[in-house]
Amino acid sequence: METAHKRPNYILIWVYLAVLTAAELALAFELPISRNLKLLLLLFLAVWKAALVGLFFMHLKFERWNLRVMALIPLPLAVIFILAGMSEHIW
Amino acid sequence: MTHAAATVDQMRPPYPAERGLEVYNTKLGMWIFLASEVMFFAALIGAYIILRFGAPGEWAKPGIVLNIKITAFNTFLLICSSVSMVKAYASIQDGDQKKMRFWLLMTILGGATFVGIQIYEYIHLVEHGFTPSGVREGSELAALVANGTLPAATMGLYGSTFFTMTGFHGFHVTCGVISMTYLYLTKALPGKYTKQDYRGIETVGLYWHFVDLVWIILFTIVYLI
């Protein structure tokens, strides 16, 4: 079992994740900004962190394209599912 | 035929067999399982969003009922355990069994501590009156509902969604800890993982990172928003 890709710097990813978590906490409880902006920024940070885990720890960045497609297919389905449910209350 | 040779056969089937994704079966199976898990957690998170948007009133503000500090520590712990898991994977890729065993053990300890802290959090919450059905009468939190600090109308929804989402996640972490412990005792300790065959470490690693990834999302939407 050989890996063809260069190994990512896992400790650097860990530092990113720790800093982003600290940023989330500061944003949620310290920064006096509007609730909607806070919501958007917190979701952005959460997706950023999740992407770091998926791309580097789960090695999706280095997998073959067809495995990546298979792994990512449920994500748009999940978003459609959630938006469809939300539409009942928003639109 | 040696074990390593069998591994190579599984990974690269001989021509003219269907090459497919060119990954071994357990890894493909894990990715398919994780795809179904995305839909499972999407259902839980979707239900939470719908209930919160459609709730008859304000939702409790974060930090009043839940202990954010201890959960932030738990989040950091799970991130650390994800790093230790990937270090175990990198170690066995280099053929270093000793390091692999060390990092795998650290991951198991991190996961077990996460579950322990979550159980402590649940006990603490129930003691203060926060239950899956809402706020218990006569409790500390019931007093906050009575003086208007917490919204009476939505505490039931808050309790049921909180315990369902974090409970199912905790169950997944527990399953991960049990799986890793099994692999540690039956494969890692006897030295069955090698530079040529470390499928178990990679597969259980994918599951573990997914559990971490789900918690990153849950922590934000349940504890911070």
Task: Please tell me about this protein's structure.
The complex is a heterodimer of chains A (91) and B (225). Chain A is an all-alpha fold. Chain A has helices spanning 10-29, 35-57, 65-72, 74-90. Chain A has 2 domains: 8-58; 63-91. Chain A contains 4 helices and no strands. In chain A, helix 1 runs antiparallel to helix 2 (35-57). Chain A starts with 9 loop residues before the first helix and ends with a helix. The relative contact order of chain A is 0.10. Chain B has 225 residues and is mainly α. Chain B has 7 helices and 2 strands, in the order ααααββααα. Chain B has helices spanning 3-11, 25-53, 68-93, 97-127, 140-146, 155-188, 199-224; strands at 130-131, 134-135. In chain B, helix 3 runs antiparallel to helix 4 (97-127). Chains A and B meet through helix 1, helix 2, helix 3 and helix 4 of A and helix 2, helix 3 and helix 7 of B.
